[in-house]
Design a protein that fits this description.
heterodimer, A: about 100 residues, alpha+beta, Alpha-Beta Plaits, B: D-Amino Acid Oxidase, Chain A, domain 2, 16 helices, binds flavin-adenine dinucleotide, binds iron/sulfur cluster
């Protein structure tokens, strides 16, 4: 008997591989944005839009910059819209059925 | 299976395309009511309206109903059963076992409930489903009853006249469609209702973020039935709390068995995700890798990764349900009960869609569209299990939130340690083990006084 029962490896894919499992139709334009860039650059020190996103859409170089948005990763979960403490995320649905299409959900 | 059902959605559309070109639907003033969103609440409303002899238009932004929808996994069917025949529904498994499990960083303490009754029809009206399949089927029941479905059409706003709602704007060319009633069944991300000032944006303290994977076992056909001890169509819902499930956050993890896949995910407070910098993806990874969880998922492969928010404001933040010409149903009205023990939104969505449609049909008989004429919807919901349950458990969520460190971190470890002490195999008498076990729990609770206080705080649970 081993002293420490071993925990089996489970497969945790990278975010890229995970996003590959979802069908995506690019609307061409970003359905996401920041409403007022200066709110990000001048007021926001916490960058809450980054850690809450399940799809690694939001990135921000430092607390003086406006986040970049990889909108084509977006799973349309809406977390960023609620999470931004300055209500500074502009959020629309991708047009006419574009964006993610789930098979199972 | 999914390809086939996708195909069916298109056929429905093509049939309708004969009536009016899909590209520029000329549906203006053609319908008795418009339902925004073909989720559970929307299809329940459309189906009920059609059964009452009205002609509803059901508008869905996804390529088919369900294409944009995500939930954990258990559909509660007491109301759907009354609306339509469930025999042809794409149900995965019935719930034969519920298991609640406390995870510290490497311990598990669990209780399991397996009433024999759940193995018999109607299986306690609890079934795992996949929304891509189920929502499409449910919308089809509405269409068969007489509703018209358009997909790939996003509602972008409401048309107001003299203060009342008289129709919708869509992202289709000439996309304005007027009808006497609008049912807002757009889910928790209620862009249309908020845009029309029918509800306020929920604060993030009242929102949970959920991520989920559907997993398959490519090299082991027996994995699901063996690991979850299933016979036939029986299935399980496993719920996990504590540090090992969602780290420092308030929330939980879940595993639900489908026919050939399992749904695994976590859902926790968005506030915690932001302030504790705990990303949904990492939280899911840690949960899946927990020593008590990993053996259930060994060898599994990800079929789909999904995410969605859950509105958790409950009765306190429920918006006005009834407006001149419009009603709010399902997640749009915040009708979700998520308190740790229960995670229920599907039954409330269907129940609210049904009552809203019933009120509309009654008002339509009298030719009335005012909020006053529709108020029987709000009354019916108040008197149904929906609002009663939300009110009954509102306090619990608040209290658990206040006691979270104790309940989700200290107590799970203490209970696991106490268990370890109580059953310790050595040469000391059992009495010493029992004393040590009790001691461990008491320390955590703050002695008799602490334990009494805690019991008082939660006494309403068993009332
Ligand atoms: C992670 C997670 C786990 C859950 N687990 C469970 C569970 O196990 N059991 C349970 O009972 N409940 C669960 N719930 C809650 C449950 O899923 C919801 O309460 C339920 O789906 C609400 O139904 P609905 O019809 O109100 O909204 P939705 O199911 O969200 O449907 C809304 C529909 O409207 C469409 N739509 C939205 N906006 C527009 C627009 N502008 N134009 C056109 N169409 C639009 C959407 O595409 C969608 O089809 C869970 C939720 C989540 C997020
Ligand atoms: S959290 Fe809001 S204000 Fe801060 S950087 Fe992100 S979008 Fe800008
Ligand atoms: S909606 Fe969800 S997935 Fe999309 S960017 Fe916002 S948080 Fe990320």
């Amino acid at each position: 008997m081993s002293v420490q029962p071993s925990v089996p490896e489970v497969q945790n894919d990278s975010i890229e591989d995970r996003l590959y499992t979802v069908k995506y139709d690019d609307p061409g334009d970003s359905h996401l944005g920041v409403k007022v860039p200066s709110v990000c650059t001048d007021s926001c020190e916490t960058t809450d839009c980054v850690p809450i996103c399940p799809a690694d859409v939001w990135h921000r170089a430092d607390t003086d910059s406006v986040p970049t948005i990889a909108y084509e990763n977006c799973l349309e979960c809406s977390s960023c819209r609620f999470a931004c403490p300055y209500d500074n995320v502009s959020w629309e649905y991708p047009t006419t059925g574009s964006g993610v299409t789930y098979k199972h959900g | 299976m999914t390809d086939q059902t996708t195909g069916m959605g298109q056929t429905l559309l093509e049939e309708r395309a004969g009536d009016a070109a899909l590209e520029s639907p000329n549906y203006d003033n053609e319908f008795d009511a418009i339902v925004v969103g073909a989720g559970l609440a929307g299809s329940a409303a459309a189906l009920t309206l059609a059964k009452r002899g009205l002609e509803p238009l059901l508008v869905e932004r996804g390529t088919y109903p369900g294409a944009k929808n995500v939930f954990g996994g258990v559909l509660y069917t007491p109301t759907i059963r009354e609306l339509t025949d469930l025999d042809s529904a794409p149900l995965e498994r019935y719930i034969a076992e519920k298991r609640f499990s406390m995870l510290s960083h490497d311990d598990e303490t669990a209780i399991s409930i397996k009433p024999g009754e759940w193995n018999r029809e109607p299986h306690n009206d609890s079934f795992t489903v996949l929304r891509g399949d189920f929502d499409e089927w449910f919308a089809e029941q509405a269409v068969e009853a007489g509703a018209t479905l358009v997909t790939e059409t996003t509602v972008t706003g409401l048309i107001r006249e003299n203060g009342g709602i008289v129709g919708i704007e869509t992202d289709r060319p000439d996309g304005e469609i007027r009808a006497p009633y609008v049912v807002l069944a757009e889910g928790g991300n209620s862009l249309v209702s908020e845009g029309a000032n029918l509800k306020a944006t929920e604060s993030r303290e009242n929102i949970a973020v959920g991520v989920k994977e559907v997993l398959e076992f490519p090299e082991n056909d027996e994995a699901i039935q063996d690991r979850f001890r299933l016979v036939g169509d029986a299935g399980v819902s496993y719920h996990y709390f504590g540090e090992g499930a969602v780290g420092e956050a308030y929330g939980g993890g879940f595993i639900y068995t489908n026919s050939d896949t399992v749904s695994v995910g976590v859902a926790y407070s968005l506030e915690d995700a932001a302030t504790k910098h705990q990303t949904p993806e990492e939280t899911l990874n840690l949960f899946k890798s927990h020593p008590a969880v990993a053996p259930l998922l060994r060898g599994a492969r990800t079929v789909e990764y999904t995410a969605k928010t859950i509105p958790e404001g409950g009765a306190e933040t429920m918006p006005d349900l009834v407006h001149d010409g419009a009603v709010l149903v399902g997640d749009t009205a915040g009708l979700v009960l998520n308190n740790g023990v229960h995670l229920e939104g599907t039954n409330m969505a269907v129940e609210s869609g049904y009552h809203a449609a019933d009120a509309i049909a009654t008002a339509a008989e009298r030719g009335l569209t005012s909020a006053d004429a529709l108020s029987s919807y709000a009354d019916a919901l108040e008197n149904s299990f929906v609002v009663q349950n939300l009110e009954r458990y509102g306090w619990l969520t608040d209290r658990v939130e206040e006691d979270r460190d104790l309940l989700f971190e200290q107590l799970p470890s203490a209970v696991a340690d106490a268990g370890t002490e109580y059953f310790r195999m050595d040469r000391a008498p059992k009495e010493a083990h029992a004393r040590a076990a009790k001691q461990r729990i008491f320390e955590t609770l703050g002695g008799w006084t602490g334990a009494m206080k805690l019991a008082m705080r939660y006494r309403k649970l068993v009332r």
